Amino acid sequence: MDYKDEKLPPSNYAVLRWFGFDQFVPETAVTSHWVSPKVFLAIRSLLALYSTIVIWTDIGFDAYHGKFTGFFAFFTNLTFIGLHAYLITSTVHHIRYLRNKNVDSFLKQPAFLNYLYVYLYCTVITNNIVTPVVFWGILARYLGPISTMQSWLNASVHGASFFLMIFDVIFNRMKVPIRMILFVFFTVVLYMFLTFIVHASAGYWVYPFLDWKQGPITAAYYFAVAVIVVLAFFIQVLIHYVRDLIARKTARSHQNTVSDSQDMTKLETNHSNVV
């Protein structure tokens, strides 16, 4: 499949260039190595629809049971909101790409929105590995009896969320700038500070394993989460690399198309010179 892959203009700020924000190629967000843009949109629309059902059901369930005041204190909820925001934003851009046959929806919007999109993508693909691992590895043992609705919501935000994310990763062609690990990591650090504020103001720990009264094991939990975040990010870097490698090896990559075209042009040029 052949795409134009028009890049963003270089940023005027060295720090943004260093992190790789302006390396974003908008067309890679709405096209795939494996399927046509229309099929990819159909897949992405289903993912966005499911995330919409889950997020609003979760909000409604918590509001009905008087628990909404603490909704935004939970890392799981913030992570799922990020995933939902990414899927909806991508779907809107995807529709405009197919309708207008260009990526002007990206290129003509303020640059900082594209940079935020890159940041959102990097946090979403990382944190939707972190959330299931931490929940099922550490937090699940603290769960008491729950209703059928709560079971479905738990499975959705701590399990299905991973599959929503990984399907999008497999089908898109986006890259992950390595230095974005710093933004991703410090986002989690900022969340830790939020939990301290919640504890100081409301008197409870958002997650039991954060409670300092548990002794040295708490430090181990904090360190384990930090390690999981870093590992999750680089697992995603590897997944993106393998995805693109398979695409190149199976001649599905746009880079192969461009390379083959260039090689054919050179061959034709050399042939005409000989003649």
UniProtKB/TrEMBL annotation:
Keywords: Membrane, Transmembrane, Transmembrane helix. Coiled coil: none annotated. The keyword Membrane applies. GO terms for cellular component: endomembrane system; membrane. It is found in: Endomembrane system. The chain crosses the membrane at residues 39-59, 71-95, 116-139, 151-171, 183-207, 219-242. It comes from the Eukaryota. InterPro entries: ADTRP_AIG1. It is a multi-pass membrane protein. Pfam families: Far-17a_AIG1. The keyword Transmembrane helix applies. This is Uncharacterized protein. It comes from Mucor saturninus.
